[in-house]
Amino acid sequence: MKDEQLKNTVITLYERGWSIRRLSWELHISRGRVRRLVVSNSAARGTTTGGNPLEKRKRPGKLAPYVDFIAALLDKYSNITGQRVYELLRQEGFDGRITIVRDYLKSIREVGSKTPVRLVETGPGQRAAHDWSDYDIRFTMHNPEKATRVTFFGYILSYSRRQYLEVVDDKRQKTLFKALINAFIYMDGITREIKSDNQKAC
Questions:
Q1: Which residues pair with 90 in a beta bridge?
Q2: Is residue 101 predicted with pLDDT exceeding 70?
Q3: Of 6, 54, 60, 154, which is the most exposed, with the fewest CB atoms less than 10 Å away?
């Protein structure tokens, strides 16, 4: 998620009543970063000459006249594609590019999703989660022209967000058990529950 998009999402959801802890959990960023974004936004809004926030002057985009039309489409067809919205907008006289439409739809669907998010709060030591993460990395000392696939094992405590990472050779069950044991040793303990996704090794 891009920095500006992340900031907008955090501010919007925070103003809707989401807690800093919930934002941290759902957006996979630290609580400190959430606080910084919220504080920086408050400071920016507070530094005005008249005591009221300065309104950001923005030229109306090409989509501005069609915002209500798009909202009506989304209310009627919640799963409508960006391509179909673009086609209908063209019929209404829109002469912009499809990328503008797709970016706008993405922004309102991410922030204003109608699907409720179920948040599970756990106490200290109650739950941890683990997963694999694949990254294509270029190692300049070996072969800078070709990216190498590197797999990480990640183990995170749900309450404190403390994390353990390990580079692994594969995703087999034996590798998973070894990595979990290493995580237990690193954390100096084991949680009551360990959550995993639907991975073959489990």
A1: none
A2: yes
A3: 60
As a whole number of angstroms, the distance between CA 85 and CA 12 comes to 25
For residue 167, what are the β-bridge partners?
Answer: 152
- 3-class SS of residue 138: coil
Beta strands in the chain (DSSP E): 127-137, 148-157, 163-168, 193-196
129 with 194: CB under 8 angstroms? yes
pTM higher than 0.85 for the full model? no
- Report the amino acid identity of residue 99: T
Structure tokens belonging to residue 132: 């694999």
Quote the tokens at residue 12: 């919007």
Question: 148-180 pLDDT, tens per residue?
Answer: 889 999 999 988 989 999 999 999 999 999 999
pLDDT in tens, 118-156: 667 788 999 999 998 888 888 877 777 788 889 999 999
Residue ranges in the chain assigned as alpha helix (H) = 3-15, 20-27, 31-46, 67-76, 82-91, 98-111, 173-187
8-state DSSP, 75: H
How many C-beta atoms surround the C-beta of residue 41 within 10 A?
16
Helix axes 31-46, 3-15, angle to 10 degrees: 80
* CA angle, residues 48, 59, 16, in degrees to nearest 5: 60
